[in-house]
Design brief:
The chain is 41% helix and 20% strand. With 180 residues, the protein is of the alpha/beta class. The protein has a domain at 50-171: Rossmann fold. Strands 2-3-6-1-7 form a five-stranded parallel beta sheet, covered by helices on one side. It has a two-stranded antiparallel sheet with strand order 4-5.
């Protein structure tokens, strides 16, 4: 029942018949505030509807549209949780996930998280579950969470963490145009 609710809301957002002579693609409708990047839009949308979790890391220089993508996903998906990683902790994310039925975890600037929190996130991704211990009470919950994250660089991220992501590298559009 949960999955049918997710897809019903998702496809309501991306209905391509909006009265235009040439209907929008599903990707353009879903990411309606982003121009271009059609290959990235397709891959992200396929990751959203995939039966198996596909974690995606968008990496590249500032001003290359990475955050715009995750914000569009936050607005389009009813069961997504957005986190600005500059002040986030893995404990705070896990606390939120315990209390909410979240399918998509959207993390902006994952490379800015503290190393211990990045390792906590990796543990959750490796085991497919997370653990919370409060006042001698330990709970384990299955983590059927798909993670979409952004970073300016992958230098601070461990190889084991990177191996859990499909990594998409962005270029700064202004810099790309100046080189051509």
């Amino acid at each position: 029942m949960y999955e049918s609710f997710v897809f019903k809301n998702l496809f309501r957002k991306i209905s391509v018949f909006d009265g235009r002579e040439h209907p929008l693609t599903y990707e353009d409708k879903f990411f309606s505030n982003i121009v271009g990047h059609s290959d990235i839009k397709k891959l992200l949308l396929k990751s959203v509807v995939s039966k198996e979790p596909v974690n995606v890391l968008l990496t590249g220089p500032p001003s290359s549209s990475k955050t715009v993508f995750v914000l569009e996903m936050r607005d389009a998906l009813s069961n997504a949780y957005f986190v600005d990683a500059t002040g986030a902790t893995s404990a705070g994310m896990i606390d939120y996930l315990f209390g909410h039925d979240t399918k998509y975890l959207l993390i902006d600037e994952i490379d800015k998280m503290a190393m211990k929190d990045i390792e906590g996130l990796l543990t959750m991704m490796e085991r497919g579950e997370f653990t919370s211990t409060k006042v001698r009470n330990t709970q384990k919950v299955k983590a059927n969470v798909v993670i979409f994250a952004t970073s300016n660089s992958t230098e601070r991220l461990s190889k084991p963490l990177l191996s859990r992501f499909t990594v998409l590298k962005f270029q700064n559009i202004l810099t790309k145009n100046l080189k051509e």
